[in-house]
Amino acid sequence: MAATQTRLWTREEYDRLVALGMFHPEERLELVEGEIIRMTPQGSRHATAVRLVEEALRQAFGQGFDVRVQLPLAIDPDSEPEPDLAVVPGSPRDYKDAHPRTAVLVVEVADATLAFDRERRARLYARAGIQDYWVLNLVERQLEVHRTPTTSGQSPRYQDIRTITASQSIAPLGCPDVSIAVADLLP
Q: What's domain 41-184's superfamily in CATH?
């Protein structure tokens, strides 16, 4: 009996499918490690948290950075994730011809997707060399901070993972002089 095989897609093929209108305009999809993944619908707590994080990051980073909300990152040939938030250098016009290839900070807001964000997305962002990856854990009301990506060993991962409680603050690596209260990020 032959084993079943999954057809994996490149970012170039995925972008071509999108351009050809192969997906419904309201369908929320992203490419992760060659797989086209349907994104989980957002509940009101998730949406509120995304907005709160966006406000905090815009204030923290200011001029010279673009805070992108649920927009693509072209991080490698087989992945084009759409993180909840990504802080990239420059301004929106810098990316009119191509999606950014990296970010100074990526934030995923997690409730139903907590395991996926902790494992698969962390591996994806570590492989891409994203230095600062945060998971805002709505279930346990805390921030999980992933830093120091490594690609040595069996699989890409972050060497430094810390949990910051709602009563604590964090400074993004991209603007270390600014402190953000975790409570301000939570709905």
A: tt1808, chain A (3.90.1570.10)
In this predicted model, what pLDDT tens digit does every residue of 121-159 receive, in sequence order? 999 999 999 999 999 999 999 999 999 999 876 789 999
Closest CA to 180 of 68, 58, 90, 63: 58
Angle 173-177-183 from CA coordinates, rounded to 5°? 80
Q: pLDDT tens digits for 70-105?
A: 999 999 999 999 999 999 999 999 999 999 999 999
Q: What share of the chain is helix, strand, coil (3-state, %, to 5)?
A: 25, 30, 45
- In this structure, the chain runs to a length of 187
Instruction: State the Cα–Cα distance between residues 47 and 140, nearest whole angstrom.
Output: 17
Count of helix runs (H) and strand runs (E) in the chain: 4, 10
CA dihedral over 89, 118, 24, 80, signed as positive or negative: positive
Using DSSP bridges, classify how beta strands 105-110 and 132-137 pair: parallel, antiparallel or unpaired: parallel
